[in-house]
Amino acid sequence: MSGIELLHEAPGLPAFELPDELRERYGGSLGFDEPRLVANFVGSLDGVVAAPPLVQSARLISADNDSDRFVMSLLRACADAIVIGSGTLRASPRSLWTADGPYPAAAGAFAELRRRRRRPENPALVVLTGSGLVDPAHPAFARGALVLTTDGGAVRLEGRLPGRSEIVSLGAAPAVDLGAALRLLRARGHRLILSEAGPHVFGGLLAAGLVDELFLTVSPVVAGRAEDAARLGLVEAHDLLAGGGAAARLLSVRRDGGHLFLRYGLSRPGRAEPSAEP
């Protein structure tokens, strides 16, 4: 199993007790102060992170890179809960968002990490949908998910999801209140939350000052843009620059061939918490 090369790391970062297999593969340790909300993306050289309506477009953007899948699994194995939006759910019609799903070769080591952190076998899955327009037959609901929605979304979903999934309305507004969603997850004991939601939700989280860290894989792929093909950037539907932008501090740089693995600490500007429609 080849390792990821460490190029730079800020001193004094938290470190979990990783199993040796994971430490060697990652090129060092990984850990987080808690509570923490961490986002993970892969993007092309020209800034594309998603290409709807293609299914699992992130795998195309990442060139199906082995190390990118490993980092995704490593972050999941650390997390208490994974947050996605309805767009991410549609784009991954068979995914269950388990810790070892992207990288099953290290399933035993990921399980050991979760045991050391006294966490359940897999992180909780949280689905954000303001409208409630999700496919009840998605296998993630049969396995069990927490659906955070609105009053209207809750009415639409009532009686349609498998019994292992739970629906919670966060209010009458047409969009999910992201600040209220985070407060609810914290109240349920989820201290380390991983966002795998798309650029619309990520933009809302950034605008609300709710994101602590960003893991960004830069893939040596140029995706391009065409008038008849949707190509989404890291942040959509939120003008952060008008408010001064979200400042980022580089925490680490790793490399596997032409792929760069960047970790940033993000500022929390403390602006009013907007709602966002996942």
Automatic annotation (TrEMBL):
Record-level GO BP terms: riboflavin biosynthetic process
Pfam families listed in its UniProt record: RibD_C (PF01872)
SUPFAM superfamilies the record matches: Dihydrofolate reductase-like
Chain segments annotated as transmembrane: none
Associated pathway: Cofactor biosynthesis; riboflavin biosynthesis
PANTHER family according to UniProt: 2,5-DIAMINO-6-RIBOSYLAMINO-4(3H)-PYRIMIDINONE 5'-PHOSPHATE REDUCTASE (PTHR38011:SF7), DIHYDROFOLATE REDUCTASE FAMILY PROTEIN (AFU_ORTHOLOGUE AFUA_8G06820) (PTHR38011)
Name of the protein in question: Pyrimidine reductase riboflavin biosynthesis
Organism: Gaiella occulta
Biological classification of the source: Bacteria, Bacillati, Actinomycetota, Thermoleophilia, Gaiellales
